[in-house]
Amino acid sequence: MKPRYCYWSVVDGDYSWMMAAVIRSARAVGIYHDFHVWSDRAIEGAINHPAGTFDKWGCLFKLVFLRDAVRHLDCEYFIWLDTDMWFVRHPGDPLRVLNGAPLHIALECDLTNPKNVREDWWNCPRNRFVDLMRQQGVRSRSIYNVNGGFFIVHRDAIETVFKLAFDFWEFSKGQGFKFNDEPLLCYAMHMLCGNPHSHTTRATVDLWASDWMGVFRDRLPDGHPWWFTDYFTGERIPVNPAIVHAMRSKSALVEVGRGAAPDPYFGPA
Fold first, then answer.
1. Is the pLDDT of residue 260 over 80?
2. Cα-trace Rg, the chain
3. Could you tell me the pLDDT band of residue 2, with boundaries at 50, 70 and 90?
4. pLDDT above 90 as % of the chain
5. According to the model, what pLDDT value does residue 264 have?
6. d(CA 83, CA 19)
7. Distance of alpha carbon 65 from alpha carbon 198, whole angstroms
8. How far apart are CA 84 and CA 138, in angstroms?
9. pLDDT exceeds cutoff 80 at 9
10. How many CA within 13 A on the CB side of residue 155?
11. Is this model's pTM higher than 0.90 or not?
12. Residue 138: Cβ-neighbour burial (10 angstroms; 0-12, 13-18, 19+)
């Protein structure tokens, strides 16, 4: 029997319209799994839960909702989606990228690469961040940054992920760095993933990748290949993921969520 999984998110305001667009794109390519959304209003296509008031600083609410609410849903795996996603085709089985690990978040760029030209991540020198990770037990040769827009976690690992993340938050705060969710998820991922190389963007790019450079700025991804740029080296690699983190397309997503026709189209099924 295949494991049960669902998608989930926490939204309010215009982000609610964006999540409606995300779900619309998913349904258009044939995805029928549940989308559980904690929100300030009902979202079409979702199983709706009241979000109440929550602290948005640093997006740490993702981890709090995961521990306090999401873990009680009747699924084995939970897939977090930021609200600026767009499905250009059916992703197949998203759990394939776990490779036996209880957590997956794409490991984007190697902070130890001697070809790196960018020197910091979230206001922390990259070499200092590597030191923080090693001081807290990370043993892999390469250490990667992450984007917090998409991650998968097994229900039985939620408490462990939460503890790892906030232990690292406390440790890093004591070293003078007050991190948001991404360095915390980065640390938990390195501690739990087994072989990090099987979780890199390059290894899993058929499923998801972030358009942080704005290839699709102010418009929706169209299902054609595009160039992903390594944040630290500037290297470009061709990608064509099923789920695009359309970080620079928020205005287009709001329009679709409010009922406008998608531009240019939902993408090939």
1. no
2. 18
3. confident
4. 93
5. 44
6. 5
7. 28
8. 31
9. yes
10. 14
11. yes
12. middle
Give the per-residue pLDDT at 262: 57
Determine how many CB atoms are found less than 10 A away from the CB of residue 131: 14
Question: Residue 87 contacts by C-beta under 8 Å, 6 or more apart in sequence?
Answer: 22, 25, 26, 28, 29, 31, 242, 243, 266, 267
Determine whether 95 is exposed, middle or buried from the number of CB atoms within 10 Å of its CB (0-12, 13-18, 19+). Answer: middle
Q: What's the CA gap between 204 and 108, in Å, rounded?
A: 10
Please spell the DSSP secondary structure of the chain, one letter per residue: -PPPEEEEEE--THHHHHHHHHHHHHHHTT--S-EEEEESS--TTSEEEE--S---GGGTHHHHHHHHTGGGSS-SEEEEE-SSEEESS----GGGGGTT-SEE--EEEETT-TT----EETTEEHHHHHHHHHHTT---SS-EEE-TTEEEEEGGGHHHHHHHHHHHHHHHHHTT----HHHHHHHHHHHH-SSGGGGBHHHHTTTEEE-TT-TTTTS---SS-EEEE-TTT--EEEE--SEEE-TT-HHHHHHHHTTPPPSS-S---
